[in-house]
TrEMBL record:
Keywords, alphabetical: Toxin-antitoxin system
Pfam hit, one: CcdA
Protein name: DUF4145 domain-containing protein
Superkingdom of source: Archaea
């Protein structure tokens, strides 16, 4: 896995407090970025699904019931 250097400015007090507490900056930043990426992907997927349902004139409830029934048939 390759890595890149990420530079960010934060308040001096925030950095000093984090250092005093022994916070692993890299782990915190990676975790925050991963969480934000998942959140954005979920929102974009939800938007696509909503747009698709709107174009098909199908409610979310009807779509969910149809998916559940399809799964039960397997």
């Amino acid at each position: 896995m390759s890595t890149v250097v990420l530079s960010v400015r934060v308040k001096r007090e925030l950095k000093e407090e984090a250092e005093r507490l022994g916070i692993d900056f890299r782990a915190v930043v990676e975790r925050a970025l991963e969480e934000e990426i998942r959140k954005i992907k979920r929102l974009r997927f939800k938007k696509l699904v909503d747009e698709a349902l709107d174009s098909m004139n199908v409610s979310v409830e009807v779509w969910m019931r149809t998916v559940k029934e399809s799964r039960a048939e397997r």
